[in-house]
Amino acid sequence: MPKAIVKGLFRDTKIVTEDSDDAREFYTQGVYGSLVKNKVELSLMEALYLVEKERLEVYDGRNKVIDADKLLKKAKKNQTNFFVKYSVFKDMRNRGYIVKTALKFGAVFRVYDRGVKPGEDHARWILYPVHESEGNTWQEFAAKNRVAHSTKKRLLIGVVDEEGEVSYWEVRWLRP
Length: 176
Known about the structure:
Elements (H helix, E strand, L loop, with lengths): L5 E6 L2 E4 L3 H8 L5 E3 L2 E5 H9 L3 E4 L5 E2 L1 H11 L3 H13 L3 E4 L7 E4 L12 E7 L6 H13 L3 E7 L5 E6 L5
Parallel strand pairs: 1-5, 9-10
Antiparallel strand pairs: 1-2, 2-4, 3-4, 5-6, 7-8, 8-9, 10-11
Helix pairs in contact: 2-3
């Protein structure tokens, strides 16, 4: 039996779902968003992913549906490098990983091993999405590596090409 489509309301930089068991399942089963007063608050990235998976319908204040293309345009206006970040987020979720923000760590994402939920164990990686045409200085690279090392996580770089395909590079400390 197909899952019900949950309704959500677009509010500034997030989407707030209806108060329903199906909506709360996003949080309890899929580890999307945060639970606030029996509703789930989703980031634009999480909402776009769920819209593309046909699990969520987003509405504006006039009760008109915001389709995936319009939601993507709104997100791009709201967040720098949204396409690159979303490409990595989507690829990791499609591979079965849980991806959460890592702003308090000074990174873009933290990634949990398959089958591991936040709170059950720590994230395995700190993940930085970059476009293949971007350059990084050695100082920027060293800073990313230091953040991963100080948080006891592995550094993962998600490199996005022009088509939105992602390649991953894991960086680890080595003592020769």
